[in-house]
Design a protein that fits this description.
Length: 172
């Protein structure tokens, strides 16, 4: 298993930069998306975390070169019960799915979800092409990322949105 903080020495600094950018841009991006600043912050911070965790160089020796293709099955529940590469790939995309699913307006939310579904393939393509990152691209990562995105969107739409709607409607 990859040890993120030892194998990716730039992960911490990249995450701090991503967080600072999210704080600095939350209000203007919130205005642009016509959404509350905290939701814009969640969207920016989760996207920044994805970039920090997937596109910073690693010092670990890659166990393969090129792209690992062929693994297109959903992660098994047994794989998600403990920390490993698959469970971390799923967990990384849950906040992004939450943010996309909570955006106000069906078109805005749908557009954000559509863009977010392209991100995992873009990441794997970047990992394959930017060999100096010392990363290995894998179709299994795309499936795990999309699983996390789906979990986040589902929780946002099925659980959080209805709760927030009731909360706002029940106000005096």
């Amino acid at each position: 298993m990859v040890d993120p903080f030892n194998d990716m020495p730039l992960l911490g600094p990249a995450a701090v930069v991503a967080l600072a950018v999210a704080v600095g841009l939350a209000v203007p991006v919130g205005r642009w998306l016509r959404t509350p600043a905290p939701l814009a912050f969640l969207l920016l911070a989760s996207a920044g975390a994805v970039v920090a965790a997937t596109l910073t160089p690693t010092v670990a020796q890659p166990w393969s070169t090129g792209c690992q293709t062929g693994a297109l099955a959903l992660p098994r529940l047994a794989q998600l019960r403990y920390l490993n590469e698959t469970s971390l790939n799923v967990a990384l995309f849950v906040p992004l799915g939450l943010a996309c699913g909570l955006l106000p307006g069906r078109w805005r939310a749908a557009t954000a979800c559509l863009v977010a579904t392209a991100v995992p393939a873009g990441i794997e393509l970047a990992q394959a092409e930017l060999t100096w990152l010392n990363r290995v691209c894998a179709t299994a990562d795309i499936v795990a990322n999309l699983t996390g995105l789906t979990v986040g969107v589902t929780v946002a739409v099925v659980l959080i949105r209805p709760w927030l709607t009731r909360l706002w409607l029940d106000r005096p």
